């Protein structure tokens, strides 16, 4: 049986799943544009009152069944396995375009190390993204083929401390910049008037769940490798604190650089691949800073990608007779072909749907709407249908039960409604064209298609079992 070798190994692996590129390139600017330090109030409430109890529930559910996510749902009710397949489909689709972005980061990292000159425009004007995507996918597959201890745990034991060391080093460096005071003020100065805006709360809750990988089934999968001696509430709290620290440190690193050179504090890909590289080129030792930054991004991206693919690998292993290596190859091939449309949308092929790059369409539908939907499915399934004694958490039972059963579902419904009907742009870096109704219909249609895919996977699994 696959088990983490130690408590530290699990915490580092789970932190690696939580800490991704969104912590570093999106969170700081979202804070700065949404009330500064005031935004941290709803964000921290979302993290510790809502997301952490869901994380605890996921880890406990996985530890109890010692099985993949489909089997974990089937254990609650046989018919609920369809929900497990639905979540697997969502996670694999997110991974398919997440690895495209990871490939971009790898290319910029190599350019910084070798002294090359690269821009996102020139890079995506070629078919070089195909190679960087394939290499990134190959790295993730190689790690997973080695197993839980020798692969995932060994990788995160090296990379997660490295992430913190690089962040701390860059934070110390940012103190020396002329824009440090202005940048930190933009990032953290509170504007308490924004707390009456419901969209700020929606953004904070969405960011909290997206940042911590809560409700994606990743921690159900990782939880199935946790030993009985693990203090799950303590581990969940450490993971959440580490995730918040990374996000805040990223802001302390990024905004002094932006304000030193009077650059626009933009979001997402523009910030990472245009704004900051322009600033790095003006800094003394800028190539070293650029290398550290893209090394940081790549480490965060790879550990998150590994956790997402493990959801698929674990499911294939659990629902078939495949070995880990065979399951890894199968899922890797699936991700490669699913990633092709997103990959080709940022090459000379320029694959678009309704005038929008396919990657952006997928991110604004599956990435934005899929995560709160999967979190809602997990919360309701294990909050209302699982046997109480199997998911109860000693010491903090009242908090976890109240949060996951009574508070979290209506909050998630509100987040989903705001995404569908208010057109709020989270967590994507572009907004779908058309009216609010158009965006709602497109997003809902894609989720329905994913549901159909999950049903077909279920039918295939049943046929294979006969």
UniProtKB/TrEMBL annotation:
Name listed for the protein in its UniProt record: Daunorubicin ABC transporter ATP-binding protein
Subcellular location: Membrane
InterPro entries attached to this UniProt entry: Na/ntran_symport, SNS_sf, YocR/YhdH-like
Keywords (A to Z) from UniProt: Membrane, Transmembrane, Transmembrane helix, Transport
A GO CC term attached to the entry: membrane
PROSITE patterns listed in its UniProt record: NA_NEUROTRAN_SYMP_3
Source domain of life: Archaea
Pfam families: SNF (PF00209)
Entry's transmembrane regions: 9-27, 39-61, 82-107, 127-146, 158-180, 200-223, 235-259, 279-306, 327-346, 366-385, 406-424, 440-458
Main location: membrane
Keyword set includes Ubl conjugation: no
Protein's membrane topology: Multi-pass membrane protein
